[in-house]
Design brief:
This is Anion exchange transporter. The chain is about 60% helix and about 5% strand. It has about 650 residues and is of the alpha/beta class. It has two domains: about 400 residues, no CATH class; about 130 residues, Transcription Regulator spoIIAA. The protein has a six-stranded mixed β-sheet, with helices on both faces. It has a two-stranded antiparallel ribbon with strand order 1-2. β3 and β4 form a beta hairpin. α3 runs antiparallel to α15, α7 runs parallel beside α20 and α13 packs across α21.
């Protein structure tokens, strides 16, 4: 009896705990994406491109780390630390395969406000050089990095708290025009901050409202103090960088190895500065002493957390928004999914943990992500390989960067911001698609320039919500079709047993950023169910489509959405008569729906499209320039399907 009881208890115990173990494994895979992709890593196919990408990424990380550390008003060596630890943390917790986390211009600018406010340059004379400090730097430098690390720590804590609160579902409020305008305005701020190095002039730290204009006013007032040597070296560096990078882009398919022009320029400029002693002869500012090694970890000063709350919120929001946009763009380009909430956790930990290693706030950068695209990176292994090379720089090569001129470093940063600055070209697209989006872009950019990136972002979101709230009550509704689905089963002449299905879905709502993701997810779910069951779903016609397409909540696409459709041909007609107004996000999603359906062997047609909607789709990316996509009516779309596919008759017809 005792043995039977023990056996019974053990069986009950296993039944109780087996599901929990499985749940824990699934939770680990969901929260540690490295457990998903690392076991499936293909060494033969991916190692070589990841290695080449890692080498090029390491060059970018080192140069940007040095420059963004100075931009953050701390010693350059802390930028090297900030290029190492966040990249490792994000590779473990992040889902973006082509997202290179590290130092970031926007977050560096924000943290510089706290550093200059709490540890101003005027207090440098009150501290002495300490050879017994952690990395052999003065107490003044250690106080400054303490403030920057505190901003990083508190910003990361805010991001982790947003993950716990599941606020990733609210990211649909961040529309593409707002993100584009904010990042463009912030890039303009970064270029402005580098003007003093490009011109070789000494100027005080200027920030606050309208600080952008005060900087240029100071430059024009002191134009006579510009060093001609620094200006000429800056112009030469910019011309070389732009020319070589354009050539690399033009001939990247013909050449197997891209020329690392940043690395070549750093070596050449440092060697020339050392040989000619430019620091003394011409008065050029150089990077200076770079200590070797990584100091032991130390907690950020907690007594300043209350004083850096504003900057911490700016780092948390601006860094996350910019990074999420890059992760979503990467996922869209390479056909995988990104969890918005998981990105909160990944970037939060990438700020919290590195803050104990004297790191400035981190985020993903557009230039580094574009570099991973161009060099053919496959997975996050490229970022890990770059970390190995950064370690070599920290322990061996760092002191050799002493002679690197600051004007050359500033030139590298300015050219690296090209991807953000050319977003001005989007203005034409927004004007042709939706003039309200154009107005939101311009106003968000102006607020970012006049105040700060976080202020511009907040203004853009509030302005977008207010405009949509004002437009929705004026939206017309249709009572005749009332968002019904109609199914047609059609037999072909060639194969009488094959059923050709035509599904007609009427959209009865404006298509804007609020419901764009939900529209995509619901439509893909309908198609996915059809493919899975391989038969008509009679009960779906009983449901009103407004429960699927009218929701203003955010929806995430399933991973199965990337799976191809069976060979059976399907047809889908979207009746757009209810799309009374739209914005850029809605039109972009409509084009994306067309491309996804095309990849699933589902032919899609649009009916009752307004002239403005057709024009907007052309500017967002014409789905198919050869075959007609939009038709005047549903019957015209049906006639086109039957004539092209030689359909003989309708075997089942549901009345509209």
């Amino acid at each position: 009896m005792t043995g039977a009881k023990r056996k019974k208890k053990s069986m009950l115990w296993s039944k109780m705990h087996t599901p929990h173990c499985e749940d824990f494994k699934q939770w680990c895979r969901r929260r540690l994406p490295i457990l998903e992709w690392a076991p499936q890593y293909n060494l033969r196919e991916n190692l070589v491109p990841d290695t080449m990408s890692g080498i090029m990424l390491a060059v970018q990380q080192v140069t940007q780390g040095l420059a963004f550390a100075i931009l953050s008003s701390v010693h350059p060596v802390f930028g090297l630390y900030g290029s190492l630890f966040p990249a490792i943390i994000y590779a473990i917790f992040g889902m973006g395969r082509h997202v290179a986390t590290g130092t970031f211009a926007l977050t560096s600018l924000i943290s510089a406000n706290a550093v200059e406010r709490l540890v101003p340059l005027s207090s440098q004379n009150l501290t002495t050089q300490s050879n017994t400090s952690i990395v052999g730097l003065s107490d003044f430098e250690m106080q400054r990095i303490g403030v920057a690390a505190a901003v990083s720590f508190l910003g990361g804590v805010i991001q982790v708290a947003m993950f716990v609160l599941q606020l990733g579902s609210a990211t649909f409020l961040l529309t593409e025009p707002v993100i584009s305008a904010m990042t463009t305005g912030a890039a303009t701020h970064v270029v402005t901050s580098q003007v003093k190095y490009l011109l070789g002039i000494k100027m005080p730290y200027i920030s606050g409202p309208l600080g952008f204009f005060y900087i240029y006013a100071y430059v024009f007032e002191n134009i006579k103090s510009v060093r001609l040597e620094a200006l000429l070296l800056s112009l030469l560096s910019i011309v070389v960088l732009v020319l070589v990078k354009e050539l690399n882009e033009q001939f990247k398919r013909k050449i197997k190895v891209v020329l690392p022009v940043d690395l070549v320029l750093i070596i050449a400029a440092s060697f020339a500065c050392y040989c000619t002693n430019m620091e003394i002869t011409y008065g050029l500012e150089v990077v200076g002493h770079i200590p070797k090694g990584i100091p032991p970890p130390r907690a950020p000063p907690m007594n300043v957390l209350s004083a850096v709350i504003t900057e911490a919120f700016g780092v948390a929001l601006v860094g996350y928004v910019a990074s999420l946009a890059l992760a979503q763009g990467s996922a869209k380009k390479y056909k995988y999914s990104v969890d918005d909430n998981q990105e909160f956790l990944a970037h939060g930990l990438s700020n919290v943990i590195p803050s104990f290693f004297f790191c400035i706030p981190s985020a993903a950068a557009m230039g580094r992500t574009a570099g991973l695209y161009s060099t053919g990176a496959k997975t996050q292994v490229a970022c890990l390989i770059s970390c190995i090379l950064i370690l070599i720089v920290i322990y061996a090569i760092g002191p050799l960067l002493y002679w690197l001129p600051m004007c050359v470093l500033a030139s590298i940063i300015v050219v690296g911001l090209k991807g953000m600055l050319i977003q001005f070209r989007d203005l034409k697209k927004y004007w042709n698609v939706d003039k309200i989006d154009w107005g939101i872009w311009v106003s968000t950019y102006v607020f970012t320039i006049c105040f700060a990136a976080n202020v511009g972002l907040l203004f853009g979101v509030v302005c977008t919500i207010a405009i949509v709230i004002g437009r929705f009550p004026r939206a017309k509704t249709l009572s005749i079709k009332n968002m019904k689905e109609m199914e047609f089963k059609v037999k072909t002449e060639t194969d009488g047993e094959t059923l050709q299905q035509v599904k007609i879905i009427s959209i009865n709502n404006p298509l804007v950023f609020l419901n764009a993701k939900k529209f995509h997810a619901d439509l893909m779910n309908i198609i996915q169910k059809e493919n899975a069951n391989n038969q008509l779903l009679d009960d779906i016609s009983k449901c009103e489509q407004n429960t699927l397409l009218n929701s203003l909540s955010n929806g995430n696409c399933n991973e199965e959405a990337s799976q191809p459709c069976p060979s059976e041909k399907c047809f889908l007609i979207l009746d757009c008569s209810g799309v009374t107004f739209f914005d850029y996000s809605g039109v972009s999603m409509l084009v994306e729906v067309y491309m996804d359906c095309k990849n699933r062997s589902v032919e899609i047609s649009l009916a009752h499209c307004t002239a403005s909607l057709i024009k907007a789709m052309k500017y967002c990316g014409n789905p198919d320039s050869e075959n007609p996509v939009s038709f005047e009516s549903v019957s015209a779309a049906l006639s086109n399907i039957y004539s092209n596919k030689n359909l003989s008759k309708l075997s089942d017809h549901s009345e509209v």
